[in-house]
Every structure is written in C-alpha cells, then in structure tokens.
Design brief:
With about 475 residues, this protein is an alpha/beta fold. It folds into three domains: about 160 residues, Aconitase, domain 3; about 110 residues, Aconitase, Domain 2, CATH 3.40.1060.10; about 170 residues, 2-Layer Sandwich (Aconitase, domain 3). Helices cover about 30% and strands about 15% of the residues. A five-stranded parallel sheet has the order 5-4-3-6-7, covered by helices on one side. Strand 13 and strand 14 form a beta hairpin. It is globular.
Length: about 475
C-alpha cells in the first residue's frame, strides 16, 4: 500500500502496539536543554538508573542563558542553578554538552533546534524529540520531530522510547512562487492566519508544492518550526538533493560508504504516488504579501497593508470575545492598519529566524542605513557557529554601524527568561514564533514578522512594508 512520509517513519519506529493503546515509539535522537531537563534527571536518580542511550542524547544551553557578554557574571540565581544542574547531569550520564564554557564545547553552543542541523545530528527518517514545543523544526529534513513534556523527557532518557498515539496526516500544499520581499516566515504566518491555530490539531503537517521545493533548508526549517502554532503535532518536508547537500560533511553525518547507503535509504522516504492524506490545506504563494500579527496568538495575522479586523464582523461569539480581548491588550483599534504604527523594539533571532540566512537578509537591508533613534534593535545569532560565520562575513559590523546590538547566541527575547525583554506597554516587531500575552516581557506587545519586515521597521521606527525599500 502506498505510504506518506510520516507513515513510513512511524511504521519503522513502532516497537510495540497493543490494540486501542498508544504505540511504543523508538526515538533516534533526544535533544536536551537546561529548562525542561532538571526534573527528568532527578527522576532517574530517584530510580537509581542513568540515561539508556547517552550516545543518542545531546544537550545545550539556550533558553535561560543571558545573551550579553559571556565575560560578565550571570545575575539570575535560577539560571545559575539550571546551568549547574545540566552540567552535573550530563557528567553523571555521559551526555555530550554544548555549554557556554570553552571546556564544554562553547564553539558549538546555541539554540537546540539550530545546532541539531548544524552538527548533522538531524537526519532524514529519524524520530527526534526535545522538551521544547518547536522541535517540529527538524521535520524540514524529512524527520519526525516533536516536543515533549518533562515526564516524557524522563521516559526517553530512561528507555529511549516514548508512548505515542498515532496522529492523522494533513498535506499543506504551497503552490506558486514567492515575490520579492516575501519569505518563508510569511508562508507559515499566512497558513496559520488563514486556517487558524487549531487547524492541525490531531494531525502531522506535510508541506508540499512548488514554493516548498524551491526553498533552502534554512527556509524550510522556518516553515516547519511554527507547525505547532497551527495546532499540528509536527511539520515535515520530504528530503531531496537540497537536504542531502546540507547534511553532507557535517560532524555527525554518515561518511564514506555509510553516506551512500544513507542517501539511498533517504531517497525512499518521500510520500509514494497514490498515497492519501487525511486532509489537505492549500496556500497560493503568488498571492502572498509580507505578513504581520496584530493579536495575542500567531493565528491573528494579516497582510502588511491590511486593516486590523473588527470583532463586530465575527459571528462566532467566543472568537469575537477573544479578538476583543486581544485588541485591548495590544492597544489597537479595529479597522486601522498596523502600517506606520510606532514601535519600541526590534528583535531578530530565535529558533525560527536566528540562522545565517536570516542575518544576511537583515544586514543587506541595514547596510549603509541607521536604525531609528527611537527603537532598540537586538540581533541575536542562533548559535556560536552562526555568530562566527556572521562575523567572518562582516555582518556584525553592519549591525553595529546601523545602531543595533550584536548579542551572544541564545533564545533571548523570544522567551524573556534572561533579562532580554520588553517593558510593559512596549511594542516590538519580532522574528520569534509566539506573540502570547507577556511572552516577550510582562505587558509587552509583540508583532510577529519576517527578518526583512523587522529590519525595515527598525530603520523607519514604525511598522513598514519592506517592499517599499527594496
């Protein structure tokens, strides 16, 4: 029987399946960070056991670490404790750690969903989990990646398996081609704005179509990264030569004859002709313009020139109330455009848009220009290798000359756990993935957008259509 990409990977990893029960699913790669792992490791110690497959477990520090100079002391006691616990837990269990000390692989440290692909740990056909909701990022490689909770982190550490109920499949077909000034971030924001944050509940997305196939791996990662914001358990893209060229030669990628064998396996992964999905969504990339959110979930998004929706035009009472509440929090009036609205902060970074291609796009727009003196601009590379590459290319000099801050790698303002946060009432154009109330700082108001839109808005000091500057 013809199978989808998801079905092939799922079937290859089921260890046991009792009727009407969750499957026991084998996990190929377990990624760990400092925030969701302490309780899981404590559970192992209490049971007198250690990680079953430390060779398939890799740790980094990203969520809580400050992104100011590493030479300065960390002042947050909770972060100090989390870092110390991760260091000790990795030593006790023989787990590789990419920390912020030179002795702990600081040259490879970064956001977990950026360093996995960089190191070649992320490969087609794998099952990949992490105690972080944006693990869907790894699906860009034709892998099944999804986030898990703390108790599940402990289960995977102890058994290298996980209990999971099989989701349904949903094709997300993106036709056409992106126009100038429109990017991968606009595709995923466009999908979520059109179909809502619950459209993918109970499903795994597989992104298909001309626009997806034309993307670089970094762009594909951006799309898959925000699958969870559309309600999906995971997001996947079938591997192809673009995938293989990205993985080839990386530290943990197969070498020699093993590489040839791996590629031969990976070429069998794409969805078979005649395979069916449980549902299908579509998006026309030709008609897409730069997107921006206006509310307090990623589904509250509009084209950059569109007016803020009016709750009075929504028939569903619960949806109307949710929009009214969001607009009150955001301090916005319905029927008026976001275009031209003053902002206070621009954040360029996160596991969604903290890769070298994102920084190149922003730097190309900022080169020879200055950011508004009314706006604080933070540029946070997603990993130490991204930072090093950007500095080799002189991108940091462009950011600094423009008046932006050039930071150390980490999650930074995406999650506001480390001093990088908005003040109450401030507006930010952010390349992050979530705009929930208080997500980027208590009382902070976030407009999600692409790196191009963020850079354009940094220059003008107001929400800006980047196409006018290209």
């Amino acid at each position: 029987m013809p199978k989808t990409l998801f079905q092939k990977i799922w079937d290859a990893h089921v260890v046991a399946q009792d009727p009407d029960s969750p499957a026991v699913l084998y996990i190929d790669l377990h990624l760990v960070h400092e925030v969701t792992s302490p309780q899981a490791f404590t559970g192992l110690r209490q049971r007198g056991i250690k990680a079953r497959r430390p060779d398939r477990t890799f740790a980094t520090m990203d969520h809580g670490i400050p992104t100011f100079s590493r030479d300065l002391p960390i002042v947050d006691d909770m972060v100090i404790k989390q870092i110390a616990m991760l260091e000790q837990n990795c030593r006790d269990n023989g787990i590789a750690l990419y920390g912020i000390k030179e002795s702990e692989g600081a040259a490879k440290q970064g956001i977990v969903h950026i360093i996995g692909p960089e190191l070649g740990l992320t490969q087609p056909g794998m099952t990949i989990v992490c105690g972080d909701s944006h693990t869907a990022t790894h699906g860009a490689f034709g892998a099944l990646g999804f986030g898990i909770g703390t108790s599940e982190v402990e289960m995977v550490l102890a058994t290298q398996c996980l209990l999971q109920r099989k989701p349904k499949t949903m094709e997300v077909q993106v036709t056409g081609a992106l126009k100038k000034g429109v990017s991968a971030k606009d595709i995923i924001l466009g999908i979520i704005a059109r179909y809502g944050v619950g459209a993918g509940t109970g499903y795994v997305f597989e992104y298909t179509g001309q626009a997806i196939r034309a993307m670089s791996m970094e762009a594909r990662m951006t799309v898959c990264n925000m699958s969870i914001e559309g309600g999906s358990r995971a997001g996947m893209i079938a591997p192809d030569d673009t995938t293989f060229n990205f993985v080839a030669g990386r530290e943990f990628a197969p070498k020699g004859a093993a590489w040839d064998q791996a590629v031969a396996r990976w070429r069998s992964l794409p969805t078979d002709a005649g395979a069916t999905y449980d549902a299908t969504l579509t998006l026309d990339a030709d008609a897409l313009e730069p997107m921006i959110t206006y509310g307090t979930n990623p589904g509250m998004g509009i084209g950059i020139n569109a007016p803020v929706p009016d709750p009075a035009n929504i028939a569903d009472l619960s949806q109307r109330a949710a929009l009214q509440k969001a607009l009150v929090y955001m301090g916005l009036e319905p029927g008026k455009p976001l275009l031209g609205r003053p902002i206070d902060v621009v954040f360029i970074g996160s596991c969604t848009n903290g890769r070298i291609s994102d920084l190149r796009e922003a730097a190309a727009l900022l080169k020879g220009r200055r950011v508004s003196d009314k706006v604080r601009v933070m540029v946070v590379p997603g990993s130490a290798p991204v930072k090093a590459q950007a500095e080799r290319e002189g991108l940091h000099e462009i950011f600094l000359a423009a008046g932006a801050e050039w930071r150390e790698p980490g999650c930074s303002m995406c999650i506001a756990m480390n001093g990088d946060e908005l003040r109450p009432g401030q507006y930010a154009v952010s390349t992050s993935n979530r705009n929930f109330e208080g997500r980027q700082g208590k009382g902070g108001r976030t407009f999600l957008a692409s790196p191009l839109t963020a850079a354009a808005s940094a220059i003008t000091g107001v929400v800006t259509d980047v196409r006018a500057m290209l």
